[in-house]
Specification:
The chain is of the alpha+beta class. Among the domains are: 8-108, Orthogonal Bundle (434 Repressor (Amino-terminal Domain)), CATH 1.10.260.40; 237-386, no CATH class. It is built from twelve helices and 13 strands. A hairpin with a 5-residue loop joins β4 and β5 (302-306). α4 packs antiparallel against α5 (69-83). The two termini are 39 Å apart.
Length: 387
């Protein structure tokens, strides 16, 4: 094993040049901001967005230049470990001898013990044909089920017609006997007897029964067990995190009435959901995929990839925190008005309503290595607790 590996940026750059692509070509094909690509290739790690989003960029880049995604992911982790000053002696596993990081090694593993030169081509052909076979089998099964349903329905209709024919040919006397057997005899209503009143004795006074004192139930106070933080928790929330204030203005709102394409983008359902005493945000991914992370009021944080052409509306009673990755290909609307913003690094944070901006810092969301996401305020509280 050796630690003499290329940085992920240099590795991608070499593959790009080998295919004759310019940096602008890759930016157009992947919808990734060209400044992010330039920082990635030059190894300017400190200016790159969160590593979670970089992983998505690397997969798109590797796909365009025909690189193996597993190998490029290992190089990414190796590069970040070097940047963070970690021990990289065990952080990278070299490719198995005979495997090529430029092709899919999952296919090669099926043929590495074969002496047949056409084996690889056959395996690839089988992998392509497998989904087609599944579709054909599924369509055949569906056709059989539909045919069976039609057959049973016709049989039911034939049986119903036969019963109706028999009923018409049956003598009237026989019908009367069948109806008599199925008749339900009426049962006389039971006689309800009123209870007898207690005899009245002249001159006898009856003392009312003493009222029982009803005591209020005693509320049980639950004792909350204090959680003692582990060394792992302390290590997570005591590490240095660059938290800073937002640069003003974070965004501007165009109060002019929407026209043309912008007016067509807003759905009627969203427009009806907008109320003066609540918050409403509308996001649409126009030219490619965008990564969305948001939190409405005190509801759980949601994070997902918004596909090209998809839209999402977010509503809340008091506040909305929103983060967009690859934000330059998306449009944002706030209460039926267009939000204008600049994102040199293709990532953008938003806080709605605007008066809440001063109460938050950047990064708006912090994602842990295990996938847990915190708002910056939640993360600061945990840091204070464990420090």
């Amino acid at each position: 094993m050796t630690n003499d590996h290329p940085a992920i940026g240099e590795y991608l750059k070499q593959a790009r040049k080998a295919h004759g692509f310019s940096l602008k070509d890759i930016a157009q094909r992947t919808c990734i901001n060209i400044n992010v690509l330039r920082d990635l290739e030059t190894g300017n790690i400190s200016k790159l967005p969160n590593k979670t989003y970089i992983r998505g960029f690397i997969k798109s880049y590797a796909k365009e230049v025909g690189l193996d995604s597993n190998y490029t992911m290992k190089l990414l982790e190796y590069t970040y470990d070097q940047f963070e000053g970690k021990d990289v002696s065990e952080s990278f596993v070299d490719p198995v001898a005979g495997e090529d990081p430029y092709i899919d090694n999952a296919v090669m593993s099926e043929t590495k013990n074969s002496k047949d030169p056409d084996k690889l081509e056959n395996v690839v052909h089988e992998k392509v044909q497998l989904p087609i076979r599944s579709i054909v089998i599924g369509a055949s099964t569906l056709a059989i089920l539909i045919s069976g349903f039609i057959f049973l329905r016709n049989q039911f209709k034939e049986t119903q017609k036969s019963l109706e024919k028999i009923s018409k040919e049956m003598p009237a006397q026989t019908k009367a006997e069948i109806q008599a057997k199925g008749a339900i005899e009426k049962v006389a209503d039971p006689v309800v007897v009123a209870p007898k009143a207690d005899p009245v004795v002249p001159g006898l006074k009856i003392k009312p029964a003493p009222k029982k004192k009803i005591e209020a139930p005693v509320k049980k106070v639950e004792t909350v067990k204090k959680i003692v933080p582990t060394k792992k928790d302390k290590a997570r929330f005591t590490k240095a995190t660059f938290i800073r204030k937002f640069k003003s203005p974070l965004y501007t709102i165009n109060d002019k009435e929407l026209t043309g394409e912008d007016k067509k983008l807003l759905t009627s359902q969203y427009q009806k959901a907008v109320k003066s005493n609540s918050e409403a945000v509308f996001v649409t991914a126009l030219k490619g995929d965008t990564w969305v992370t948001y939190k409405s009021d005190d509801l759980p944080i949601k994070s997902f990839n918004l596909r090209k052409g998809r839209k999402i509306s977010i509503t809340a009673k008091s506040k909305i925190l929103l983060f967009l990755g690859n934000s330059n290909i998306a449009k944002v609307f706030y209460k039926n008005t267009k939000v204008q913003y600049e994102a040199p690094r293709s990532v953008k944070s938003f806080v709605f309503p605007p008066k809440e901006i001063d109460n938050y810092h950047i990064p708006l969301f912090i994602r842990e290595d295990d996938g847990t996401i915190y708002t910056v305020r939640e993360y600061q509280l945990l840091q204070n607790e464990y420090n």
